[in-house]
């Protein structure tokens, strides 16, 4: 991963040494999951599960194979009907001691643009205050392999890992707090994105 | 594997000696001033150990290995440059083309095809990068993208790869060190010049030489590097087929234009507003921070030697 893509990791010491944890990152590229998984030792990968949209990842046999066999994905239903709790399988995974990687933008969206966060990640964190919540910002993956193309161009991906975050208040407030934490990390690693370029 | 000619052992011993002294000095500093922080210096010296060991081992043991290593260095440098400067979404296929030029350029080097090596990027890639860019159908920003990509290719692939072509120069009767000597001579003097400029600048530096682009560089540091590197170039001339006077000229070329390369890469970093080009090499910064001087010194030294001796 490092040889081809070029990883630049800031704050690696903030990565939780034990499972379970919740890792929340912005999402621009299929590379994001691979980059985040590559930060952990191989032996732990069985217990670290990227949470991904069931409607996309289970839509074809090839994607289903990649999701379940290679990435150990935990599928979640987007736009669940009222009455169903889409977070229940995630809570169960945490209870089993599995860590989760969440992309609360809900989609890769426009590359290198931080979309508004959905509230699921914050809800999950509020329900499990004992599980460390780590905000992460990824920059450059959207240039390297954006949505809608298979043309991979090696470029340096910068990863900023923040200190564990404690959330409180309503899901809406907690979501805003989480989004701001990820945004702040972004300003740290990509000053030009925050309009501070000299 | 051919037996190692005696002259090649001198640079190895010299590098090992310098690193041992530097490591000992660092240990002593830590003991004498326990309150000061020498972590950065320690990281820097450790990275030097790794880079010097890998480079010397590969260059001395295998010519193919040395070409592959140098191709990887070019790739890292170009990737760091492309990641640093702004780019358009439409540039992506042209960037891929630029990366693919690296193995091809090293194929020409590996087969010793000088004519192709010397025109491949300046002629063929120069024409094909804009071609790849127009295929996207987006003219807005075309000129800037074409310029940026070609400048990156010329500086970090074409320029740097000249160091590798030194290995393909023919053996000469009476020149014991052989082509590997030339490569070690260039890289050793280039890197020593960086260190000597830094050390003299840090201790004696008063007058800024490029106040806006690189405020820490001083006339004292620049001249210190030139005045120390040039005699070293004469002393180490047994690694080259050069006469003493010609070796002095090579020393001047490497130190003066090493400095220029350093400032040119600083201008890129200043342009986009960063201090280090990345954090790829602990204690040093990015790959570009380490090879910037060679981007200028390598092609100039290569053509100097080729004109005079081959």
Structure description:
The complex is a heterodimer of chains A (198) and B (310). Chain A contains 7 helices and 7 strands; from the N terminus they run E-E-H-E-H-H-E-H-E-H-E-H-E-H. The C terminus of chain A is likely disordered. The two termini of chain A are 31 Å apart. Chain A is of the alpha/beta class and 198 residues long. The mean pLDDT of chain B is 95. Chain B is mostly helical and 310 residues long. Chains A and B meet through loops of A and helix 3 and helix 4 of B.
Ranges of chain A where pLDDT stays below 50 over 5 or more residues in a row are 193-198
What is the architecture of chain A at the second tier of CATH? 3-Layer(aba) Sandwich
Provide the β-strand percentage band of chain B: under 5%
> Radius of gyration of chain A, Cα only, in angstroms?
16 Å
Shape of chain B: globular
CATH topology of chain A: Glycerol-3-phosphate (1)-acyltransferase
Give the helix level of chain B as a range of percent. over 70%
* Helix coverage percent of chain A: 25-40%
Going across the biggest sheet of chain A, name each strand in turn: 1-7-6-2-5-3-4
Main sheet overview of chain A:
7 strands, mixed
- Helix count of chain A? 7
Count every beta strand of chain B, where a strand is a DSSP E run of 2 or more residues. Answer: 0
Output mean pLDDT of chain B: 95
**Major protein interface:** A-B, 18 and 19 residues
What is the CATH first-level class name of chain A?
Alpha Beta
Radius of gyration of chain B: 20 Å
Weakly predicted, low-confidence segments of chain B: none
Features:
A: 198 residues; alpha/beta; Glycerol-3-phosphate (1)-acyltransferase; 7 strands; 17% strand; globular; B: 310 residues; mainly alpha; 75% helix; 0% strand
What's a quick, concise take on this entry?
Chain A has 198 residues and is an alpha/beta fold.
Provide the fold topology.
The complex is a heterodimer of chains A (198) and B (310).
Chain A: E1 7-10, E2 22-25, H1 31-38, E3 48-53, H2 54-57, H3 61-70, E4 74-76, H4 88-95, E5 99-102, H5 120-127, E6 133-139, H6 141-144, E7 157-161, H7 171-189
Chain B: H1 6-32, H2 39-61, H3 63-84, H4 92-110, H5 114-134, H6 142-165, H7 178-204, H8 219-235, H9 244-272, H10 287-309
Helix pairs in contact in B: 1-2, 1-7, 2-3, 3-4, 3-6, 4-5, 4-6, 5-6, 6-10, 7-8, 7-9, 7-10, 8-9, 9-10
């Amino acid at each position: 991963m490092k040889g081809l893509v070029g990883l630049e990791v800031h704050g690696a010491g903030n990565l939780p040494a034990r499972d379970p944890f919740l890792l929340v990152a912005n999402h621009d590229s299929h590379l994001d999951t691979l980059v985040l998984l590559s930060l952990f030792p191989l032996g732990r990968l069985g217990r670290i599960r990227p949470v991904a949209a069931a409607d996309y990842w289970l839509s074809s046999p090839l994607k289903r194979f990649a999701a379940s066999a290679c990435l150990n994905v935990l599928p979640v239903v987007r736009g669940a009907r009222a009455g169903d709790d889409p977070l229940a399988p995630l809570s169960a995974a945490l209870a089993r001691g599995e860590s989760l990687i969440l992309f609360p933008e809900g989609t890769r969206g426009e590359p290198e643009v931080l979309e508004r966060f959905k509230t699921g990640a914050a809800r999950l964190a509020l329900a499990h205050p004992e599980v460390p919540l780590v905000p992460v910002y990824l920059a450059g993956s959207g240039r390297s392999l954006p949505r809608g193309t298979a043309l991979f161009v090696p470029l340096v991906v910068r990863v900023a890992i923040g200190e564990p975050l404690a959330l409180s208040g309503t899901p809406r407030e907690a979501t805003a707090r989480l989004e701001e934490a990820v945004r702040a990390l972004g300003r740290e690693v990509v000053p030009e994105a925050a309009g501070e370029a000299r | 594997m051919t037996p190692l000619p005696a002259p090649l052992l001198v640079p190895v011993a010299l590098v090992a000696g310098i690193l041992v002294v530097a490591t000992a000095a660092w240990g002593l500093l830590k003991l004498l001033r326990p309150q000061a922080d020498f972590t950065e210096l320690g990281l820097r010296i450790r990275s030097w150990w790794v880079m010097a060991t890998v480079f010397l081992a590969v260059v001395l043991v295998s010519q193919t290995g040395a070409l592959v290593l140098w191709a990887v260095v070019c790739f890292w440098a170009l990737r760091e440059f492309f990641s640093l400067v702004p780019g358009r979404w439409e540039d992506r296929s042209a960037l891929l083309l630029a990366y693919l030029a690296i193995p091809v350029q090293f194929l020409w080097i590996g087969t010793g095809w000088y004519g192709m090596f010397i025109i491949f990027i300046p002629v063929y890639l120069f024409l094909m990068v804009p071609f790849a860019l127009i295929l996207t159908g987006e003219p807005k920003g075309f000129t800037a993208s074409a310029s940026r990509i070609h400048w990156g290719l010329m500086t970090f692939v074409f320029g740097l790869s000249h160091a590798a072509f030194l290995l393909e120069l023919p053996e000469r009767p009476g020149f014991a060190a052989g082509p590997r000597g030339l490569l070690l001579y260039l890289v050793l003097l280039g890197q020593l010049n960086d260190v000597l400029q830094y050390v003299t600048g840090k201790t004696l530096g008063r007058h800024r030489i490029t106040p806006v682009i690189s405020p820490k560089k001083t006339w004292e540091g620049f001249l210190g590097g030139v005045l120390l590197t040039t005699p070293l170039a004469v002393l180490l001339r047994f690694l080259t087929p050069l006469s003493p006077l010609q070796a002095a000229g090579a020393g001047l070329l490497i130190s003066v234009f090493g400095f220029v390369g350093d400032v040119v890469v600083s201008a890129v970093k200043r342009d986009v507003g960063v201090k280090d080009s990345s954090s790829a090499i602990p204690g040093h910064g990015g790959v570009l921070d380490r090879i910037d001087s060679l981007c200028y010194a390598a092609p100039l030294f290569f053509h100097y030697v080729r004109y005079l001796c081959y």
